[in-house]
């Protein structure tokens, strides 16, 4: 379900120069990084890359969604971590992404951890944005 412009609470603004081989910065100066293709894609790997930035954002957002779900279920997720692995590769349309989200939730059993991450996947804005567009695998 989409939101309307009037419902927006915050807007992040980032500007890229020279695409995958340049620089990206936010308007508030909090993020200002060199981006280069990784060596696996023929680049020099000297800077970060869009896939790393996406993985960082997705893992943080998913961890937040996990927290919302855990509060609603009175589940203890203290000490938990969420890791996002973002792969890029060729597909029929040029290039595409694939994501694996792995969660470690030490204070719940494996079945409950699986239930929590499946529910978090339903509420995470990144998961909603990628639904039907890319493969996202969930793991505990």
UniProtKB/TrEMBL annotation:
InterPro entries: KH_dom-like_a/b (IPR015946), OHR (IPR019953), OsmC/Ohr_fam (IPR003718), OsmC/Ohrsf (IPR036102). It comes from the Bacteria. Gene3D superfamilies: 2.20.25.10, 3.30.300.20. PANTHER family: ORGANIC HYDROPEROXIDE RESISTANCE PROTEIN-LIKE. Belongs to the OsmC/Ohr family. This is Ohr family peroxiredoxin. It comes from Streptomyces bambusae. The lineage of its organism: Bacteria, Bacillati, Actinomycetota, Actinomycetes, Kitasatosporales.
